[in-house]
Amino acid sequence: MGERSARNPSLENLVVLVGDWDMDLSGASFLPNPDDKVLGHVGFKWIEGGALLLMRQGEAPPPSPPQARWVIGRDEASPDYKVLYFDGRGVSRIYEMSFGDGLWKLWRNTPDFSQRFEGRLSEDHDTVMAHWEKSLDGESWEHDFNVIYRRRK
User: Is residue 70 classed as helix, strand or coil in its secondary structure?
Assistant: First the structure.
């Protein structure tokens, strides 16, 4: 089978994420001091000839966030995306994702640990201001951490 010559049209909305980003993680209960800030790098690139979008995180040594990979795809019949996640701690998850009108959301609902993410893309598409929340019962939610992505120039 030949290599694809065009990106997956069901992922076209995500073209604004492609590139390299600096990441600031803060306000995290899992850090030694909640006022600490952890800096990292995130890169989004097309893989498999544009069929899927790959996010790579944590290429820097600690204390940067753990190395993680997200593979993002979408069923063309559904408005939402699927994100396959794996990180350097051995954690493997599948998230639902929506992206449009400057609002980026991810969520995962499981009986023992649910998560949700909400980020706002700036008008110039160079900054994402976001936060993660977590729930141990799927009903009571608490702040997990803040994250800011800034596009590298």
Answer: strand
CA distance 67 to 40: 10
User: How far apart, in whole angstroms, are the C-alpha atoms of residue 35 and residue 111?
Assistant: 30
Give the bridge partners for 21, in sequence order. Answer: 42, 151
Q: Give this prediction's pTM.
A: 0.91
AA identity, residue 111? P
User: Could you read off the pLDDT of 40-91 as tens digits, one per residue?
Assistant: 999 999 999 999 999 999 865 565 677 899 999 999 999 999 999 999 889 9
How far, in Å, CA of 121 to CA of 116, rounded? Answer: 17
- Residue 139 φ/ψ region, left for φ over 0, alpha for ψ in the -120 to 50 degree band, beta for the rest: alpha
Chain CA centroid to CA 138, Å: 20
